[in-house]
Design a protein that fits this description.
about 325 residues; alpha/beta; two-stranded antiparallel sheet; 13 helices; 10 strands; globular; NADP; Aldo-keto reductase; oxidoreductase; NADP_OxRdtase_dom
Length: about 325
């Protein structure tokens, strides 16, 4: 009964779809469907999840070359019956498979063909791991893809402020979006990065908002109490926190009831005091497991918020990224 009630409540919650305005003027849906890094992220399960998400009113599909599910996402979109121009599609260029301009241009054309669309709304460079020179080369490719109409907006993923500065300095074009791991227990350095980029017109898309597999450990006392005060669940509370920070969110699920639950997150608002209490709450037990066998809430090291390309080129961030996706 609870699942049915959640599904029925979504239509009202999405009466006015929550969006975020990008620097270029486009309105990006704020509450998307993440399609990364789970057993159900390929084949019939992700086709079904895509259809369920769209049928429930969601309008942002987040995918990537590295996820290997472009064709499945495209099939889900077509089978949903929702017109292409009503859906925002984000994808990402993988530096592992597109390490120079020519390879990036081919990868862009290939992903459009795989998705079965004429353009994507947002295309990102997935990581800065190639170092500054090669990453600038990929960025020039994205700038040109936008000029050709293959892409409506361009951005990056897992970048920090200085790395974004380098792209803008080299090309005159600033990323409109930076997709990173971001949640209440991110380090102060990464909270500062998100705030600084927001002030410059760079929108953060937050992933890992729910701690991975809905963090099976204890939620503690603060989060359930705050959620209950709004008639919400803890996952909805955490998504609402990110949305009120000005971030887009892309929680992943293949279960219609959970997808509906995630989409209902815009249905309430948190006070400034409640936002602070969430951030001050202890990190929930079982929250995201860190790299190299360590336990902790953050994928990124603190210094990675300010060190341009150096640590990425050394593959520090790359190894953490692979650990999370294992």
């Amino acid at each position: 009964m609870r699942a049915i009630a959640l599904c029925l409540s979504v239509a009202a919650a999405l009466a006015e779809l929550e969006t975020i305005k990008l620097a270029g003027g486009l309105e990006m849906p704020a509450n998307g469907l993440g399609t990364c890094c789970r057993k159900t992220a390929k084949g019939p399960p992700i086709v079904a999840a895509t259809k369920a998400y769209l049928e429930l009113g969601g309008r942002l599909l987040d995918t990537a070359m590295a996820y290997g599910n472009h064709a499945d996402i495209g099939r889900g979109l077509r089978e949903s019956g929702v017109p292409r121009d009503e859906v925002w599609i984000t994808s990402k260029i993988s530096p592992s498979r597109a390490a120079n301009y020519k390879q990036c241009a081919k990868a862009t054309a290939d992903l459009l063909e795989e998705l079965g669309v004429a353009f994507v709304d947002l295309l990102l460079i997935h990581t800065p791991k190639l170092g500054e020179e090669k990453t600038v080369e990929l960025w020039r490719c994205l700038v040109d893809a936008k000029a050709r109409g293959q892409v409506r907006a361009i951005g990056v993923s897992n970048f920090n402020g200085p790395e974004i500065d380098a792209l803008e300095k080299a090309t005159g074009e600033k990323p409109e979006v930076n997709q990173i791991q971001y949640h209440p227990w991110s380090s102060k350095e990464w909270h500062a990065t998100v705030a600084a980029l927001k002030a410059r017109g760079v929108v953060t898309t937050a992933y890992n908002s729910l701690g991975g597999s809905r963090f099976p450990g204890s939620h503690g006392d603060v989060l359930p109490a705050l959620a209950a005060a709004h008639g919400a669940t803890v996952p909805q509370l955490l998504l609402r926190w990110a949305l009120q920070k000005g971030c887009a969110v892309i929680p992943g699920s293949s279960t219609p009831a959970h997808i509906a639950e995630n989409l209902a997150a815009p249905a309430f608002a948190l006070s400034a005091d409640e936002m602070r209490r969430i951030e001050d709450a202890p990190t929930p037990a079982g929250w995201w497991e860190g790299a190299r066998g360590t336990t902790g809430p953050n994928k990124y090291a603190d210094h990675e918020a300010v060190t341009a390309f150096h640590d990425a080129a050394k593959k520090d961030r790359r190894s953490r990224h692979k650990t999370e996706h294992r």
